[in-house]
Amino acid sequence: MEYIENKTFDEIEIGDTAELNRVLKPQDIELFAVMSGDVNPAHVDLEYAKNDIFHKVIAHGMWGGALISAVLGTQLPGPGTIYLNQSLSFLRPVGLGDKVLVRVTVKEKITDKKQILLECECLNQDGEFIITGEARVIAPNEKVRRPRVILPEVHLHEHGAHYEKLLESTKDISPIRVAVVHPCDKISLLGAMEAKCQGVIEPILIGPKDKITAVASQVGCSLTGIKLIDAPHSHAAADIAVEEVRKNNVDAIMKGKLHTDELMESVLHKTKGLRTERRMSHIFALDVPTYHKPLFITDAAINIAPDLNTKRDIVQNAIDLLHSLAIITPKVAILSAVETVNSKMLSTIDASSLCKMADRGQITGGLLDGPLAFDNAISKAAAAAKGLESKVAGDADILIAPDLEAGNMMAKQLIYLAGAESAGIVLGASVPIILTSRADGTLSRLASCVLAQRYVDYRKKVIL
Questions:
Q1: What is the CATH classification number for the domain harbouring 134?
Q2: Cis bond leading into 371, ω under 30°?
Q3: Sorting pLDDT into bands at 50, 70 and 90, what band is 441?
Q4: What is the DSSP letter of 95?
Q5: Cα–Cα distance measured from residue 297 to residue 299, given in angstroms and rounded to the nearest whole number
Q6: What range defines the domain where residue 321 resides?
């Protein structure tokens, strides 16, 4: 255990020094900005900073001041110190990667007030002064030695960062034609219109015309130039959307304000639907703050208790989606509760069978491993602790749930307990289906549209 210990007033001598070394990292700037609210673009906007006076992102000036405070509070004088005054002169900027030496030196002792005057300075790796100043403190009278407090682990997460990158990747892709089924509430309509504004889709609104125009008027959204097909109710809107696909008038379908099973009833119709030789499955695309890359979970919405053949299609659908996102060899973790095959647990047998099917070319384009427990699939440390040697464990792109209940609970836990952003799409039909939850916001709907756009563009290129 580490301890911090002070120097009392009587122990301190003129000329005593204490030092701290720190390298400026992006996280330091981000944390300071979050804590202080100072989002001056010189510190947090790379494009702006390139053209600013220093031509680079620099630390907040008071970041260095905070380091001086850290030395005073933990080393000299240390615990029990009371800050009275601090003067600082900022002489040079601190850029990312700069090595900063913080030093305080005792200049004067004021005996009757138990005060200490300290010279404070910060220097960079070239020995140049960054900050100089002077601090006045009341030094402690009593000796203090305490265990160093272990600080909480901080995870910085830029809201929607992965989705922004995904959106940026579509700038050279043409918008796709999307039948938006029954967009009769604010969030459904705005999600589709935002995707249009971003150049992702060309929406075709299908539903009761009066309701749709009323919602548009309520939210101040112009429908000028937008095709609107009148339908008396949501079920009729779903039927019309499917028919528009069969006529080759649209490239994808987007769920609005209606239940999933109502939309899927039309999609799954045996003679008038959009079935293919592949079973349909839903894929969650999650931006999880504590995971190092986008995470895809399937199936959490369509297939309740999939058999082995259905799981094969579920896996292939997910791999195909990731191919459309330029992930060449996605890593697929087939989940169970354990990492070994157990004859009493069907999910472990299915997992091992799916891996062998991949070996035999019945599943292509991905790297499969299973059975894997959830912790082993997403944590290298957990996999190492159990002695697992796997290219998938701890680095999975896709998690294959053993059934819908497990997949749905897993995804919802990440969304509501881990702060994950979610998008969703159904593949296996003749066109992708943008299937979002009624609770999903505009960003989620936009990201789901981007998934469909990338997939449609990818399929066109594959066919050509």
A1: 3.10.129.10
A2: yes
A3: confident
A4: B
A5: 6
A6: 278-428
Say which DSSP state 403 is in. S
Q: Judge whether 295 and 288 are in contact, CB under 8 Å.
A: yes
How is 13-66 classified by DSSP, letter by letter?
A: -TT-EEEEEEE--HHHHHHHHHHH----HHHH-HHHHHTSTTSS-B--HHHHHH
Closest CA to 33 of 156, 132, 128, 125: 156
**Domain boundary at 113, 147, 181, which?**
147
Report strand pairing: 99-110 vs 421-427.
unpaired
Write the pLDDT tens digit of every residue in 203-241. Answer: 999 999 999 999 999 989 899 999 999 999 999 999 999
The neighbouring-strand residues paired with 228 are 205
Residue 163 lies inside a defined structural domain of this protein: no
Structural domain includes residue 229: no
Q: State CA 58 to chain mean position distance.
A: 25
Neighbours of 3 (CB within 10 A): 9
- Among 167, 456, 459, CA closest to 287: 167
Length of the chain: 464
Domain contains 375: yes
Give residues with Cβ within 8 angstroms of 386, minimum separation 6. 339, 376
Q: How many domains does the chain have?
A: 2
